[in-house]
Design a protein that fits this description.
The structure is a homotetramer.
Chain A lengths: L3 H17 L18 H27 L6 H15 L1 H8 L6 H26 L7 H6 L3 H16 L4 H16 L3 H7 L8
Chain lengths: ~200, ~200, ~200, ~200
């Protein structure tokens, strides 16, 4: 079983999740620049969620380039990732105007944590299907960025009870760390023929 | 006629159906954890619908791997399946806060039943196009899971008039049975070259 | 320039147009079977619009199988078709509860007419790019079904001022005529190798 | 790394952005032709936004045909373009009934400007990855249309403070200039084998 259709389906779901978030970017009834004011935090939270989803798409894309085969378990692990990612718009919508309140910040961080764990499960499921010396195994290596992200999200969840804004700053920091494309995998794929992706 | 574009279109529709359901996951105006309380049953029903759609996508994916040709009839049978699946968000939206009420439970089960029947029609339409000893025919076999599901949905529809929650439990049970990837087809595809999917 | 990405984009737009229509299938606040009553005409109109979009997708799919090359003009003609198809949800939403009123019926028929004309322009643009003895030219032939549909939509638009329901019946009749897959093209593609689609 | 999946993801996002704009094309509660009156400016603005998104898709499609390789930077530049394009529905929604008011016109023009700059960055990122005599470098050439568009959007933003309608006219003029497919790239791709796209 090759991964072509799994990738196509994942692309479609992530593209939709990304895009339906803009349905909540509604300007108020006024038509002056001042009317845009309450939209600013919403736009920034949208940008953050867009970035997280873009990171997942990028990493998924890199990951799939070194995958040689998938099975039913991988398909379900991938569905688990898509489920958590699909909760992003609801969490974003709640966080938008409430960045200084504990509950929305914790819920938003919880969706990030769930997505990170689901991605970890997906990577492990794939590893179990590939030999220890496969390009995938080499590419994933120790996955310290993945593990660090999980720790950061848990810390952010605790911090949110004291200073919600600090928890968001921690979430942003994780995004920045991931913005650098996954060089581990890029390194492995460099020597492969271009038709591989 | 190969099935490439039919699969791509099906992927897109299922991805959208899955994802627009989250548009109904709106937290109330409060911003405490307590405000999330009414969202819990909605989230569980969303998870159930997401799982059903994921099962259909998985089974469709497995099915198409052993399909050798399609025709106009197959395209319409597939559209029938997509039509019933597209009713899932509306049924989910109604069931969400009303899991203890007969009508929403019956309507939700009706959408599941319609989808199951449409999938059965799709499989039969494909069978009519393939020889009796084709991988597809071997893979589908007696299709007892498909037939059992239809029976379970009908029973759930009757039970819902007495105990709505029991009907939902029956729907969940069907989902659990299907969560195991379709080994019938997996078995047949195991020996085929990887480029087949 | 091959048509691969044009088809993928068209698939995505039609899939989304089809699916966002269900966002208007909202049950009222009640939770009895009676609460579903006002939903029945909406569901029937949704089924009609779904069928029209499925017909366009099917015909587009068949058409593209005999297309050998496209150019910038074809891409814009295709965008014109997508624009008119994208108006379907708005027209469907208005027609849903107003099937006995002239204006919504005329507007709905106008979207059908615009889509039919845009498809005709797309076919002509493709014809201008292919030799007179190409499979495409043979497949399209005289295109009497396309021309008849345009006439029927115009007649329906006039009839709607007297008896709106009769105009809808005419629209349904056109859909039924198209439900039969386009045998003209199916005939031509029969002898082509399976990897063509 | 080939660009196949990047294109597929871009197609999906643009298709969704295009299509969710129609969710705002809601007829008022009346059901006469007069009830459609307030919809006319909204429909025209939708047509303008649809055209801009179609232009970006067309240009992206032409661009990717001469791209020989991509890297992580290209993927992020592409995400930047998708982010600005995804703001189109919100800007369109605000502009729809307010075409004579400064703020919505400036914001709409700002989204156009952001998209144009993001496309410029994408093109430059691709150029940095290809040799100076590559088909891509030849195809992009001096990119005077891209630079002219940026200047026009900035002028429109200033003009909007005096005469909002004149700013919109300028935006429309840019769209008209782009409606002609990118002959620079079409010229280069003409001699390439058809399987290139």
């Amino acid at each position: 079983m090759s991964s072509g259709r799994l990738e196509a389906f994942t692309d479609a779901v992530i593209a939709i999740v990304m895009t339906i978030m803009v349905l909540d970017l509604r300007p108020p009834t006024g038509h002056t620049f001042g009317a845009l004011h309450p939209l600013v935090p919403k736009l920034l939270v949208y940008l953050l969620s867009f970035t997280f989803l873009a990171i997942y798409w990028n990493n998924h894309h890199h990951l799939m380039q070194v995958v040689e085969r998938i099975d039913g378990r991988v398909m379900w692990a991938n569905m688990g990732l898509l489920f958590f990612l699909s909760l992003t718009p609801a969490a974003t919508d709640w966080l938008g105007p409430n960045t200084d309140t504990t509950a929305p910040v914790v819920v938003y961080g919880g969706v990030l944590l769930g997505s990170a764990l689901a991605y970890f499960v997906l990577a492990q499921t794939l590893l179990a299907l590939h030999p220890a010396d496969s390009p995938l195994a080499q590419a994933l290596g120790k996955d310290w960025k993945g593990k660090l992200s999980v720790v950061a999200y848990v810390v952010a969840g605790v911090v949110a009870f004291a200073v919600p804004e600090a928890a968001i700053a921690l979430d942003v920091a994780v995004a920045v760390v991931w913005l650098v494309p996954d060089r581990r995998i890029a390194r492995v794929t460099l020597d492969r023929p271009p038709e591989d992706s």
